[in-house]
User: What shape does this take?
Amino acid sequence: MKYYLDEDLSPKVAAILRKHGVDTVSAHDVERLQLSDQEHLEFAAAAGRCLVTRNRNDFITLTVHFFNEHRPHAGVLIIPYSLPGDRFQTVARAIAKHASLHPRGLPPYSIDFLKS
Assistant: This one.
């Protein structure tokens, strides 16, 4: 499983995940800041990475558009607001657990919700 964290998530989470062997990049790491949600999803899909975000509604809508337009899509993982964004270790542990459950990635156009 490969992840791309959008700019709503701290690059500290990506760094923690990489230390634990989870293939993760952050929008901050690759200087993809202030892009539209669509541009983030396009980047993640082109790289074969599941996009990780807190922005549930926009990415659900975009996933439907990508599906209808037969555009590449490597899945979206939504982090609930009940998981505080400043709890970097907690967020990283939950994503690492998700990665262990989906070693081959999510099916195209999948939307999954992170469990703490």
Q: What stands out?
A: The longest strand covers residues 2-5.
